[in-house]
Amino acid sequence: MAADDEGKIAPLELDEAKARELEEKFDSEIRFRPLSPMAARLVGVLLVTLSIFHYYTAGFGLLSEVVHRGIHLSFVLGLIFLVFPFTRRGYDQPAQSSLVRPLGISLIDWALAAGAVVAVLHVPFIPLDDLAFRVGNPTTTDVVLGGILVLVLLEATRRSVGWPLPIIALLFMAYSIWGPSMPGILVHPGATFSQLINHLYLTTQGIYGIALGVVATYVFHFVLFGVFATRIGLGQLFLDCAAWVAGRYAGGPAKVSIFGSALFGMISGSSVANTVTVGSLTIPAMIRLGYKRTFAAAVESASSTGGQITPPIMGAAAFLMIEFLNLPYTTIILAAIVPAFMHFFGVLIQVHFEAKRNGLRGMTREELPDLKEAFKRDWPTVIPLVVLIGVLLSGYTPYLAAFWGITLCVAVGLLNPRRRMSFTEVFEGLRDGAKYALAVGAAAATVGIIVGVVTLTGVGFKISYIVTSTAAQMATFVGTLVPAAWFGPQTLTLLFTLIMTGVVCILMGCGIPTTANYIIMATIAAPTLGLLGVEPIVAHFFVFYYGVLADITPPVALAAYAAAGMAGADPFKTGNTAFRLGLGKVLVPFVFVFSPSLLLVTANFTWSNFLIAFIGCVLGITCLGSALSGWLLVRTAAWERLLLVIAAVLLVVPELMSSLIGLALIVPVLLHQFAGHRMQPAL
């Protein structure tokens, strides 16, 4: 979206090429170093081959578990050494071929790529009977190749994701070997290097574990679907719908950003992709309308972060839940509906108050898209999404649903005369879809190292004990300060455990991708919550949502920084503002822990509990948004903001008496606001 020189906002028109350029600029995980023409063709063919492999197996049958994961990882690691340089300076170096740099890529990188492929494919092609005998009794070849794989995997992850995740993996490996030297409860017998490699390399509890399996089986296919769905025009249709629904109201472009990000997030599942695609249109329009640059960037990034929690596709973590919880994907989708709504509602209410406070207008009829014409032009693009959702709801596997979604995307793209896709664009879609698999694939395999150490040493149970013991001590102290009738010891223990878990999730997420963060916390923190009686699906959703918050939490807030770059705003201020806008996502996980009915699919679901929690959340988020924005019907005084914050906390507590007290606190604020509103001069 853009604005012309007369101050009018031009209709939305998504520029796919510009969106891809922005995404590569701001998302380091898909930014490749300069490649020579021959190297670019080679990499392109390999990426397309990887996509075709996954597309074919999704529709016609997966290979055996370890073979499928091994082929995927061999492509991922091999390609990472070809496209990601050793240092950041490599992005600025021209791709010049020489004897020591064939096709512009150093011999060291070629050797690392070859070593990675050999080490990865060694295990999948060991006969099953032989592999079963060697688990626990690895050969010298197994130990050597396993050691090589660990080293190249850590280096590949460092190049594509950054330092934090490899460092965490190294610390866990060090813990597994030097267990006897650990203090207190953390002590354990320790493992030899050979035993560690055996566990990480030859079993499915390490590198070839669930994390890699989910990326290779589910995530890849849905990312590929999202790429093709956007290419055929579904993203444009979603943005037109968002503008038609929300654009006419106060602060129109900002509300279009929220609705558009919610709809676009259904098919992207990526915070940064969502930010740059929708933000390339909405951020300039918000700035032109009168929003500050920082606020405009924050609105887009906070909204786009919701893409990872918006059904039906969500982020990679949703597919991991299928494996961790052994639940159908439809259950995960249903559980995500209300929390996703609360996130977008929290952003929307603050945007609305901000627009009212600054007197910002909505879009005029001339600036709004013609929805009838949009559907007439792009209605075929909805077919793949409808079929994908239909196949999912019918109980078939997610990857089969993605197969049919991709197939229909290509069919619609090739046959739709209004927005025809060429065979070259199909090739580019297959290539770009595989791009997203590289960083997340390496991260998932590295997380397998961490999970492997947890299962080898039992450190997860020890950490759970430390956390719950600390929370119990804090609860005992606080229990002496408040009446027992307000909060019992068990409730306070759970509350402090949740606070500590949430803080760790955010801190971990500042350095590692959401998917990796979720896997680590699901392995270590979710069992801690389980010890306190929290249902598994509730515990997993809690750590998932707090991990997603890292995308808008400084000092490393990828989505916020991408939006700031497009808006020309201060990145740190943008991150802080985006975090404030996303505070609904901070509160809601606490609500569904104490009132699991909010997730719709929990064991003790009741409509009465659901309605109390839902209405309390809506009112509480509204109060909090008003307090943070300084506006309700008119500007709020300091005492009103204080009462609104207290009321917000009481309202989101899923208990009737607490909600009634919160409502009582709102009454004087409303009376004062109505009086002030009546005194305002008529416009």
Write structural notes for this entry:
InterPro entries: DctM, TRAP_DctM-Dct_fused. Its main location: membrane. It is a multi-pass membrane protein. It comes from Neorhizobium petrolearium. Part of the tripartite ATP-independent periplasmic (TRAP) transport system. There is one protein chain. It is globular and about 80 Å long. Helix 2 packs across helix 19 and helix 11 runs parallel beside helix 13. It is built from 29 helices and no strands. By secondary structure, the protein is mainly alpha-helical. The protein has a domain of 198 residues.
In short:
The chain crosses the membrane at residues 38-58, 70-87, 99-123, 135-154, 161-178, 206-229, 329-353, 382-415, 436-457, 463-485, 492-509, 515-534, 541-563, 583-603, 610-633, 645-671. By secondary structure, this protein is mostly helical.
Keywords:
683 residues, mainly alpha, disordered N terminus
